[in-house]
């Protein structure tokens, strides 16, 4: 690949990161990653009705991990932090104690309602790019995420292989 393109690509990624979208998209009551998790719980959560519990909109930690493409331990740490801040609640099932649902607290729902600025920013970006360019960007970003995930997996496999070789020596 052309070295010039590699440098431009790197610089564009750096420029996007330096825009510090966090200042444009959420309230600083919680870190950006935690805000994104709250938003994901709100968007991806489903309505559940369990014995002895009022109906609630929730999602499991495993589902959150999959949707966010983040490890379960990392999601669990963030869930613990958000629970300590009163932003989420855990709901245990009586039939299977291992199955835990995560749902938003009233505090988190209020925070999300007040954070409509995020949607305004996204709407402005989509309007500025136009439908076709936005769809193209999403397709390219999806492809980029796939490539980066493959690289991450390859590095993980390589480290595992090196550890196993070290154990044999």
What can be said about this structure in brief?
With 169 residues, this protein is an alpha+beta fold. The protein is built from seven helices and four strands.
Annotated CATH architecture of the domain at 31-114 = Orthogonal Bundle
Shape: flat
Number of strands: 4
Q: What can be said about the biggest beta sheet?
A: 4 strands, antiparallel
Percent helix: 55-70%
Which superfamily, in CATH terms, is the homologous superfamily of the domain at 31-114? Answer: Winged helix-like DNA-binding domain superfamily/Winged helix DNA-binding domain
Outline the structure in words:
The longest helix is centred in the C-terminal third of the chain and has 52 residues, at 117-168. The protein has a domain at 31-114: Winged helix-like DNA-binding domain superfamily/Winged helix DNA-binding domain (Arc Repressor Mutant, subunit A, Orthogonal Bundle), CATH 1.10.10. It has seven helices and four strands; from the N terminus they run αααββααββαα. It is flat. α4 (61-68) packs across α5. The mean pLDDT is 84. β3 (88-92) and β4 form a beta hairpin. It has helices at residues 3-18, 22-25, 32-44, 61-68, 72-84, 106-114, 117-168; strands spanning 46-50, 53-60, 88-92, 100-104. With 169 residues, the protein is an alpha+beta fold. Helix content is 68%, strand content 14%. It has a four-stranded antiparallel beta sheet. The two termini are 38 Å apart. The relative contact order is 0.10.
């Amino acid at each position: 690949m052309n070295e010039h393109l590699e440098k431009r690509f790197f610089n564009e990624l750096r420029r996007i990161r330096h825009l510090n979208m966090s200042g444009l998209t959420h309230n600083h009551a919680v870190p950006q990653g935690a805000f994104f998790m709250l938003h994901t719980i709100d968007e991806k959560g489903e309505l559940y009705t369990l014995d002895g519990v009022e109906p609630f909109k929730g999602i499991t930690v495993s589902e959150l991990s999959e949707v966010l493409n983040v490890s379960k331990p990392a999601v669990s740490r963030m869930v613990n932090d958000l629970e300590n801040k009163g932003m989420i609640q855990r709901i245990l099932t009586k039939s299977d104690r291992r199955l835990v649902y995560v749902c938003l607290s009233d505090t988190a729902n209020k925070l999300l309602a007040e954070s409509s600025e995020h949607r305004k920013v996204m709407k402005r970006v989509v309007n500025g790019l136009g439908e076709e360019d936005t769809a193209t960007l999403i397709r390219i970003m999806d492809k980029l995420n796939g490539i980066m995930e493959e690289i991450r997996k390859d590095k993980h496999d390589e480290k595992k292989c090196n550890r196993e070789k070290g154990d044999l020596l």
